[in-house]
Design a protein that fits this description.
By secondary structure, this protein is mainly α. The termini are far apart.
């Protein structure tokens, strides 16, 4: 099985020979991925209040759901015993 090349006359990339090194001007600069000054240290006091409140609300919601499920199974067991 042969594969046909969709571009009958392939052209080399801009500023590059068929095989060889890439000229320095055509490569993007290296990026560290962090801001120039780095990230500030995180402490408990630097956490936004909204995030702490959301975490407390999430824990409360999970606890309420667990209690609701436990109450359902307790009621179901009581009904089965009757």
């Amino acid at each position: 099985m042969t594969v046909n090349n969709p571009d009958p006359e392939p052209r080399p990339a801009l500023g590059r020979e068929r095989e060889g090194p890439v000229p320095p001007g055509l490569t993007p600069p290296a990026d560290s991925g962090t801001p120039p000054g780095g990230y500030p240290p995180m402490t408990r006091d630097s956490t936004p209040v909204r995030t702490r409140n959301r975490a407390k609300a999430s824990v409360a919601a999970v606890c309420a759901l667990v209690l609701l499920v436990a109450a359902f199974f307790l009621a179901y067991a009581l009904v089965l015993m009757l």
